[in-house]
Design brief:
alpha+beta; 8 helices; 556 residues; binds fe (ii) ion; 2 domains; 6-stranded mixed sheet; Purple Acid Phosphatase, chain A, domain 2; Immunoglobulin-like
């Protein structure tokens, strides 16, 4: 009677041992199938929502990471996320498991008219602050929005800096009707907001036929001399489908900068109007961090913003949208005859673009403006520019020398002139030719993108006789902490703002860092934060989560 029990126990033990070995990973038995995502709840409240009011989205799910489209970004299970819909909106929750399994669910948010807030569905680009055409007037800003061309309503803008709403001058518009892009004809509207209290906040609202369709409270005015300011700089920003683009945008918004400078390659892959609408605006003027409607962002041309134009190849339809998606100073060199612009031919094919861009093309590629105690000089560094043209150099010199006494001088262009890495990047180092001008006119910082990484040089000047690495004279005494006065400009590359990573190519050369090397971080996305006083510039490079990757200080 007792004999079967030991045998059975032995068999059971063996089975258990085999099962345990299987779970240990050493067996050929099939593993448990990965858990599929499950959406338990996804709802919007209130729904319908009154125009101009926020709606709260709540999601509960298991088995993966959640994301909300269009353009609302990541959401965790149990999290509530608020946004203001611009008209009826289908919001899609997508949960993706680690093994790639996907579950989706949609909720349609309906917008109903409110007593004093008309359904704002007619916006195709919601209002965003612009630098406008007053480069040295901290009491002014521009405002831009796009709406369908068939909309014949009368637009107006009002501003409130104290208790009373003040009507601004009538907005102006250009027609954006680019055949073949599948985008119906639009009007790009601009208004001038003035007078604003420098360094203060203000409210503004956009009215259509006398009814409010859009309102922002707490927008930031520009900074005047003597006012401390926080400036964020990042390049190579919005790449379709790359989650880093959004996480960097949210990280930037979390720093609450007074001003953001986008140093080229703004909307991948070609800077077309379609890409601006589908990717750029949802990232920087929509979703949970609609930065551009309450903080000033300044756009700078990169090679992707001029599509293939910089290399003479036919560009895709809707390209060069920079020239009607931004409203910035037209105080550039005006060198329109010397090959400083893309060759847009045949002329007839480009007529719709020229109508949309108006006077902004090509003048808006180069300009200067002041903010706080700094003069920013912005250059188009694409290949069609003639960097050794005496007239262009004269304009750069004039723009720098025109800075009021004691101002920081910061120059921004997309293509860096010097390469401290082992990455050649197809010989795009032509901007080195301008360095002697910059060092002679006491530039403090040169900020670039193009390489999808962060890199910092020592302060340096060039010895006479060449503009290559062999002539670099690095300031070896400067350390940015104990010694903060620099002999020569510092070159910053801050092109890790959301595009594909260059970490496998942009690295310190195997034989050791070059003499002008100071820092290089290519294995993560990041952006630059400058806290600027009149006598002190504090620089930090941060990742999307707010961790400081590098920092230094400059003083007079
Ligand atoms: Fe680039």
């Amino acid at each position: 009677m007792n004999s079967p029990r030991p045998a059975g126990t032995l068999v059971l033990t063996c089975v258990l041992l085999v099962l345990a070995a299987c779970r240990g990973g050493g067996s050929k038995a099939p593993a448990d199938p990965p858990a599929a995502p499950v959406i338990l709840r996804f709802e919007a409240d209130p729904n319908p929502v009154e125009a101009g009011s926020p709606v709260t989205l709540r999601a509960e799910f298991t088995g993966g990471k959640g994301a909300l489209d269009p353009g609302l970004g990541a959401i965790a299970s149990g999290q509530a996320l608020a946004f203001v819909p611009l008209g009826d909106t289908s919001v899609v929750l997508t949960v993706t498991s680690p093994s790639g399994q996907v579950r989706s669910e949609a909720v349609k948010v309906q917008v109903k008219p409110s007593p004093d807030f008309e359904d704002p569905a007619s916006f195709t680009v919601p209002p965003c602050l612009q630098l406008g055409e007053a480069p040295d007037r901290p009491d002014r800003l521009g405002l831009m929005w796009h709406a369908p061309a068939y909309d014949t309503g009368t637009w107006a803008v009002e501003v409130r800096t104290t208790g009373t709403w003040v009507r601004m001058a009538d907005p102006a518009s250009t027609l954006v009707d680019i055949p073949g892009t599948q985008v119906p004809a639009q009007r790009a509207w601009t208004a001038v907001l003035k007078p604003l209290e420098p360094g203060g906040t203000f409210d503004y609202r956009v009215l259509r036929d006398g009814r409010r369709v859009f309102q922002v409270n707490g927008a930031r005015a520009r900074m005047a001399p003597g006012q401390r300011q926080r400036v964020v700089i990042a390049g190579d920003l919005v790449e379709p489908g790359n989650p880093a683009s959004r996480s960097i945008a949210e990280g930037i918004a979390a720093q609450k900068p007074d001003l953001m400078l986008a140093v080229g390659d703004l909307s991948y892959p070609h800077g077309t109007y379609q890409e601006y609408r589908a990717h750029f605006y949802p990232t920087y003027n929509g979703g949970p961090a609609p930065f551009m409607r309450s903080r000033l962002m300044v756009g700078i041309l990169g090679n992707h913003d001029v599509a293939h134009v910089d290399r003479g190849a036919p560009p895709p339809l809707g390209s060069l949208a920079y020239y009607y998606c931004w409203d910035q100073p037209l105080n550039g060199p005006g060198l329109l005859q010397g090959g400083h612009v893309a060759n847009l031919s045949p002329a007839q094919a480009w007529a719709p673009f020229r109508q949309a861009a108006g006077a902004r093309y090509p003048a808006m590629g180069n300009f200067w403006f002041d903010s706080g105690d700094a003069r920013f000089v912005v250059l188009d560094s694409n290949r069609y520019m003639h960097r050794d043209d005496p007239a262009l150099r004269h304009w750069v010199e004039t723009a720098l020398d025109g800075a009021p006494a004691g101002f920081w001088r910061i120059v921004l262009y997309h293509h860096p002139g010097f390469n401290q890495s082992s990455f050649k990047h197809t010989n795009d180092w032509h901007m080195a030719q301008l360095w002697p001008v910059l060092q002679r006119h006491r530039v403090d910082l040169v900020v670039n993108g193009h390489l999808h990484a962060y890199a910092r040089t020592r302060p340096f000047t060039l010895a006479p006789g060449g503009v290559d690495e062999a002539h670099i004279l690095p300031d070896l005494a400067y350390d940015g902490a104990a010694t903060t006065k620099a002999a020569g400009p510092i070159q910053i590359i801050t092109g890790a703002g959301g595009g594909i990573s260059h970490k496998n190519r942009f690295r310190v050369p195997a034989k050791g860092p070059k003499p002008f090397h100071q820092a290089l971080i290519a294995d993560r996305h990041s952006f630059s934060v400058l806290d600027l006083d009149r006598d002190r510039l504090r620089f930090r490079q941060m990742d999307g989560a707010g961790a400081v990757l590098d920092q230094f200080t400059l003083t007079r």
